[in-house]
Specification:
This protein is of the alpha/beta class. It contains 13 helices and 23 strands. Bound molecules: methylmalonyl-coenzyme A (MCA) and adenosine monophosphate (AMP).
């Protein structure tokens, strides 16, 4: 899947490509506030689909290339895009899913209908900070995905705060090996590079040895913890190869303190860990200058307020006490798409957004100690157990199920399904896999299945997932 090319993206060419796409989107009828959904392979042209959408005043909706048709159908029905951009190979099947939507195609090398016409549109739709720029879906704890509506102010304020915090400039050369359908690869990595006028060393996928080869000409790597875990397995990761790098940034999932220490020992660099969310972009970061503490996600970014509060109210707790992490600032999203109830539940009247993460402050540094939301982070991708449990529970052999995240050396957490079988039934993992295969993206599918006689429950009848996580903690020997 990964190509061997590393490209520097010349701005003039990117601008022309964006203007050609903007012409195609305009012709397709995209107007202010319309959604443009893109499920395209990683390529420099994929970045132009985002920029062209903003140019014509649309809302960009990037979609994971791993999503199945069932998953896509939900996003199409919920977001009602005016235009959908897909790989030419997926044209026919997407047409069947979205007959009302104008379908345009874009392949990895720029082929397809989106760039077919040479016409360019130079007009830029004027937008205010409060205008909508994007919708990114975050799977919901009830199994139903919610679209977080992000404004232009959300994107610009976060980008500027990060440029300052990490002293990122036009001289930087970023190794870009992340997918471009999430905040991390798109709004952190790409926005920062474009706004600073920096350079990207573009990789279609993460390959540890090629990333190490690029250290010689790069200055920054941004990655999820799995990147660092995998880099550490290479004998080629040394002080010498990393000596010209400026900073290594990790986020999207907790970085193991042991990996932080091992990376320092192997390269002399202290990984800079930061904390973000789809609804907020980046919230906190360890300092660029100053002590980067392993196990901590650092200080609030400029302009961002972060408190640790009592879950029942937004009463702030003293340092050291664990509570609900809440965030207020120009980075906090506008609302959940067509879901005012959820918006009201998660954004307090005071403007603080309840992240669903739990943590505490120590010496001004924020530590994330757990999650109130039932969510697994596997290799930096979020997986919501409810979505998988609902499918497993429909299987004739299964009475009920609980899906948990179990420590995994490579992925951080791996998805495990614990099932109670119907009387007289045997555990049959391949059959369960087949039944969920058409519905769930591969990264959400359980890496292991275990049968138990009954699920542990508290007096309220709630399944005690912590107990199951303990019971299966050494399933992957991590
Ligand atoms: C791929 N597979 C996975 C994952 N990725 N399974 C579980 N968890 C995963 N994360 C499966 C594939 O379906 C395939 O299954 C097999 O593993 C190998 O696939 P391959 O494509 O070779 O995977 P890989 O290249 O090894 O990918 C691992 C990866 C990738 C590099 C860690 O998952 C990745 O790029 N993750 C980053 C995600 C990210 O950007 N997160 C940011 C979102 P099979 O062989 O069975 O078919 S969070 C965010 O934006 C917030 C705001 C933030 O704070 O940043
Ligand atoms: P997303 O749905 O992709 O926005 O995922 C955001 C979630 O990822 C946060 O709410 C955290 O639970 C988690 N996360 C992001 N960065 C970190 C980090 N550095 N350490 C621990 N958890 C993190």
């Amino acid at each position: 899947m990964s190509s061997q090319t590393v490209r520097k993206s010349p701005t003039g060419q990117l601008l022309k490509t964006t203007q050609r796409m903007a012409a195609a989107l305009h012709t397709a009828g995209v107007a202010r506030g319309d959604r443009v959904a893109a499920q395209v392979e990683k390529s420099p042209q994929a970045i132009a689909t985002y920029l062209a959408t903003l140019q014509v005043g649309g809302m960009y909706l990037p979609l994971n290339t791993a999503y199945t048709d069932t998953e896509l159908q939900y996003f199409i029905d919920d977001a009602e895009p005016t235009v959908m951009i897909v790989d030419p190979a997926r044209q026919a099947q997407t047409e069947a899913l979205a007959p009302e939507v104008v379908l345009l195609t874009l392949g990895r090398d720029g082929q397809g209908s989106l760039l077919k016409s040479g016409a360019r549109r130079t007009a830029v739709e004027p937008m205010w900070g409060s205008d909508e720029a994007a919708i990114l879906y975050t799977s919901g704890t009830t199994g139903r995905s919610k679209g977080a509506v992000l404004t232009h102010k959300n994107l610009t304020s976060n980008c500027l705060a990060l440029l300052g915090a990490w002293e990122f400039t036009g001289d930087d050369r970023l190794i870009h090996a992340l997918p471009v359908f999430h905040i991390h690869g798109l709004f952190v990595a790409v926005n920062m590079t474009l706004v600073a006028g920096a350079t990207m060393l573009w990789m279609d996928a993460f390959e540890p040895e090629r990333v190490i080869d690029h250290f010689a000409t790069a200055t920054v790597l941004m990655g999820v913890p799995t990147f660092f875990t995998r880099l550490l397995t290479s004998p080629n990761l040394t002080h010498e190869v990393a000596s010209t790098m400026r900073v290594f940034v990790s986020g999207s999932a907790p970085l193991l303190a042991a990996d932080h220490a091992a990376f320092t020992q192997r390269t002399g660099h202290h990984i800079l860990e930061r904390y973000g969310m789809t609804e907020t972009g980046m919230n906190t970061t360890n300092p660029y200058r100053g002590q980067r503490r392993a196990g901590s996600v650092g200080f609030p970014l400029a302009g961002v307020e972060v408190i640790v509060a009592e879950p029942e109210s937004d009463a702030e707790l003293p340092a050291g006490e664990i509570g609900s992490i809440e965030v207020r600032g120009p980075n906090v999203f506008d609302r959940y798409w067509r879901n005012p109830e959820k918006t009201q539940q998660e954004i307090r009247d005071s403007g603080f957004f309840i992240t669903g993460d739990q943590g505490y402050f120590d010496d001004g540094y924020l530590h994330i100690s757990g999650r109130a939301k039932d969510m697994i982070i596997s290799g930096g991708y979020n997986v919501y157990p409810k979505e998988i449990e609902q499918l497993l529970d429909e299987h004739p052999t299964v009475k009920e199920s609980a899906v948990i995240g179990v420590a995994h050396a490579d992925l951080g957490e791996a998805v495990v399904a614990v099932v109670v079988l119907n009387d007289g039934r045997q555990l049959d993992p391949p059959a369960l896999e087949t039944s969920t295969g058409d519905e769930l993206a591969r990264f959400k599918q359980p890496r292991a299945y275990r049968a138990v006689d009954e699920l542990p429950r508290n007096v309220m009848g709630k399944v005690q997932k912590a107990q199951l996580r303990d019971q299966f903690s050494d399933l992957f020997g991590a």
